Amino acid sequence: MLTAALPIIGREVRTASRRPMDALSALLFFIVVGSVFPLAVGPDAALLTAIGPGVVWVAALLAVMISLHRLFLPDLEDGALEQLLLSPRSLTGIVYAKIAAHWLVTCLPLVAVAPLMGLQFGLPAQAIGVLLLSLLLGTPTLVLLGALGAALTLGLRGNVLLALIVLPLCVPVLIFGSGAVAASHQGLPVNPHLSLLGACLLVAACLCPWAVGAALRLAVE
Amino acid sequence: MFAGVTFDAAPGDVMHVRGSNGSGKSSLLRLLCGLLQPTRGDVHWRSRRVGAHDAGFARAVAYMGHAVGMSGELTVLENLRFSLHVAGSESGDAACRDMLQRLQLSDREHEPLRHLSQGQQRRLSLARVLLSQRPLWLLDEPCAGLDAEGEHIFDACLADHIARGGMAVVTTHRDIGHDGPCAHTLDMNRLSDADCCPSDHRA
Q: Which residues contact B42 (CB under 8 A, 6 or more apart)?
């Protein structure tokens, strides 16, 4: 399974490195959205710390959202999707590899700069640690759900429908993710939130790739 | 789109699908390879009905569509290597380089695909089909964009494939190899006269 997936992940990473703006735009969007909030809210340190976890999580969610339409569209346009669908290899495995590659290319840089965003809102070190953990657990779920939306809306013009389909599905991840950071900041236990994030990830990892495969077959018909 | 098409192909056969634009040639090929599911009718392979997403049948088919099926950002060799991995083929780098040589692409192997002309991209698609070593080729307008020399190479490759007992269903407007192997012709424009029976491709 892994030997079958590695060339696909390698191809995606290589393609992204040849067109860095596609991957970097999500990261820059994340930084910009996170940075304009303190400017708009004003220099009230207590307020900024209180809204920080929610703002970082919403910024991450939106950044993932704007990157999603590139997940399958280039493959649809150049015909590579047809070849992937005709492969004797497992389509679910191929979809897993595509999703993993997309997470590596767009979400991992975003997770890496999240601590800086936390500092910007004056979050304490422990809360920043929980923010990192919650993003590491939560962003793969966002990409899995997003891939389903991307496959269902593949070939349609505009990305509004994609956001309308995916955003409601992402609400639990958003709640548990920002909830974990807020709880840590208030000195409450964070394990329940992180466990629920993990549960969301497992459910999405079981169901989404299979559904994405079915949606992709419909998209090329 | 169409009804009343029934045809068989045996090893060593070429089915030449002709017809005007929009007559359903490409749809027929997409039906045969499984990208489209027929509303009525079946595709059979080696006396067995091909189900939806049949991995065994997928291992027997090489499909060449209108699009090149490769990423414009990657180099020729990277694309070829990846396509063969997706096709589950074992051909190594040496075989890839030999094939690029044969198709006169060897001096372009480290160039991004988007720098290649349409004819060169077509040659690269052909390289993928050849290297995947499948018994059944489904080629949609394989000669579109090819120059005279490219067409000549294509005819030679097809004749080789047929001589080794392969099968091919080819849609094209030109005659494939007058002296060549073209065994059957299916004219999509004359289908309306035929009786209504499910489309069927046996081998």
A: B49, B50, B198, B200
Mean pLDDT of B119-124: 92
Give A82-130 pLDDT, tens digit per residue.
Answer: 999 999 999 999 999 999 999 999 999 999 999 999 999 999 999 999 9
Contacts B112 to A, Cβ<8 Å: 18
- Of the partner residues A18, A85, A89, the one whose CB lies closest to the CB of residue B73: A18
- Burial of B175 from C-beta contacts in 10 A (0-12 / 13-18 / 19+): exposed
In the predicted model, is pLDDT for residue B194 greater than 60? no
Distance CA B73, CA A94 (A): 20
Provide, for chain A, the percentages of residues in helix, strand and coil under a 3-state DSSP scheme, each rounded to the nearest 5. 85, 0, 15
Q: Read off the pLDDT band of A7 (50, 70, 90).
A: very high
Q: Which residues of B touch A8 (CB under 8 A)?
A: 82, 85-86
To probe the interface with A, which of B39, B66, B68, B86 has the most A CB atoms within 10 Å? B86
Separation between Cα atoms, residue B18 and residue B147, nearest integer Å: 20
Chain B interface with A: residues with Cβ < 8 Å: 33-37, 53, 55-56, 58-59, 61, 63, 65-74, 78, 81-83, 85-88, 112
| Chain A residue with the nearest C-alpha to that of B121 | A78
Contact A88 B58 (CB under 8 A): yes
Distance CA A168, CA B46 (A): 48
Query: Which uninterrupted H or E stretch holds B6?
Result: strand B6-8
Rounded distance between C-alpha atoms, residue A131 and residue A59, angstroms: 13
Query: pLDDT tens for residues A167-201?
Result: 999 999 999 999 999 999 888 999 999 999 999 99
Show which of residues 67-86 on chain A sit within 8 Å of chain B, judged by CB atoms: 74-75, 77-80, 82-86
Q: Which of B85, B161, B78 is nearest to B126 (CA)?
A: B161
Which residues, 6 or more positions from A73, have their beta carbon under 8 angstroms from its beta carbon? A150, A154
Q: How far is B178 from chain A (nearest CA, A)?
A: 31
Q: Which helix (H) or strand (E) holds A12?
A: helix A2-18
The string of DSSP letters for A107-162 reads IHHHHHHHHHHHHHTT--HHHHHHHHHHHHHHHHHHHHHHHHHHHHTTT-SSSHHH
CB contact under 8 A, A78 and B61: no
